[in-house]
Design brief:
349 residues; mainly alpha; 13 helices
Length: 349
């Protein structure tokens, strides 16, 4: 992801080779960090300070530094300056080794991961392309999740999760504000999307409290039975915020970005997928398998909802030339979905 901020994709020659070399080096760092984090998680059951400790610290620092570079480069910032700063601060956290600093580093890493995982996506001309972008975002968020827990934060779980999600949403919308040309680029479609997404966010975050206050005993018992059945037979229960908001937003948003810039406003809610993944492993009451299954089930449900949103959007907005219908019309629509956007490894502006 280490392209120079603000520079267009190189057409050839030394600049193009340097860019490819930089991307390759970035991928090597991320892969090495992921390997160290996996090794640290595998050895985390051993009591006391073991080799898993320094592997976790090294993996967390490397991931945070690489993601800082990637996000800065992707958003037109100064990747070298910010990545060096992230490296120095990471070393300071490990050197001082206090709960407060480690918890703060975990919050920053989770927020950085959530936003970067959304920003690294590219427009999707068709639904399968949108599925691919969800997989890319999940992979980036999964590595960041290991880095977050590797900091060994000591936190109140609910407060940590709400803090990460809130800061991720703020950072995502501030970034999209620049990408969408400010409020002028929002448009009526964007206003509707932001309002609808905000309502869905409030509903998914507050559904438990709403059930407790206004749900009947019969309804609550039925939902509890469904959750217990899912845990017993499937190993986990789908995460509502992932299934109802995060994945549908990223699916529909990347699809819309190939056609209209308002798609970025939809993608902003994609942090409702990437943020829960980024802090999933912090919960000591959940195993890695359970967290993975809960995310996977939510992703499947979210993709179905995203597909329905795409079909509805195309039905309402796609041009319908006379004499064309069905697959022929779909092919024509995809052929015209050519809104330009920089590649995955280049700055967005």
């Amino acid at each position: 992801m280490p392209s120079s901020p603000g520079s267009p994709p190189a057409s050839g020659g030394p600049s193009r080779r340097a860019h490819r070399l930089g991307v390759a080096c970035w991928l090597v760092v991320v892969a090495a960090a992921a390997a160290a984090l996996v090794a640290a998680l595998a050895g985390s059951d051993v009591p006391g300070r073991t080799n898993a400790t320094w592997l976790a610290d090294a993996g967390a620092i490397a991931t945070s530094t690489a993601y800082t570079w990637g996000l800065a480069a992707r958003t037109g910032g100064r990747p070298l300056i910010f990545s060096i700063l992230a490296l120095v601060l990471g070393g300071l956290v490990v050197g001082v080794d206090t709960d407060a600093l480690r918890s703060g580093a975990a919050v920053v890493t989770a927020v950085l991961t959530a936003v970067f995982a959304v920003m690294v996506t590219v427009p999707a001309v068709h639904f399968l392309g949108a599925v691919r972008e969800n997989v890319v975002a999940l992979l980036v968020a999964a590595i960041g999740s290991m880095a977050t827990v590797a900091w060994a934060p000591v936190v109140n779980l609910d407060r940590f999760q709400y803090t990460v999600l809130g800061l991720s949403l703020v950072a995502s919308f501030l970034t999209v504000f620049r990408l969408g040309a400010g409020w002028h680029g929002l448009g009526s479609r964007g206003v509707f999307t932001v309002v609808a997404g905000s309502l869905m966010l409030a509903l998914t975050l507050g559904y438990a409290e709403l059930l407790r206050r206004y749900g009947t005993d019969t309804l609550i018992d039925a939902l509890d039975d469904a959750v217990r059945w899912s845990h017993h037979h499937l190993g986990a229960f789908p995460r509502p915020i992932v299934a109802l908001l995060g994945v549908p937003a990223l699916t529909w948003g990347t699809h819309m970005r190939a056609r209209r810039r308002q798609g970025w406003w939809v993608c902003a809610f994609g942090v409702a997928l990437t943020a829960p993944v980024a802090y999933a492993l912090v919960d000591p009451g959940r195993t890695v398998l359970e967290a993975s299954l809960a995310t996977a089930y939510g992703a499947v449900i979210g993709l179905l909802i995203g597909y329905l949103l795409i079909r509805l959007d195309l039905r309402l907005t796609a041009p319908r030339p006379a004499g064309q219908r069905g697959r022929r019309l779909a092919g024509t629509e995809e052929a015209t979905a050519v809104r330009p956007e920089p590649g995955r490894t280049h700055a967005l502006w």
